[in-house]
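Q: My labmate handed me this sequence with no annotations at all. I'd like to see what the chain might look like in three dimensions before we decide whether it's worth expressing. Could you predict it?
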Amino acid sequence: MENNRWGRRIRAFRKLKAIKQLDFAKEIGMSTSVLGQIERGTRVPTKEQLNTMASVLHIQVEELMGEMNTKGKEEN
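A: Here is what I predict for the chain of 76 residues:
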């Protein structure tokens, strides 16, 4: 998955849940700097980080991936 798409989806779910970046970073155990890099797509989250983020957001990791069609493109 494209790095910035991960970041956009993480940021979108965080904002949907009305969680500030600082609060989310503390909750998932990372610095706001690292979280910002992930949300901007300049850093790839680890599988463990994705699992933690999904858990805190009360969603499945698959929801962070988005719906994929058979050609591998995100459907909206």
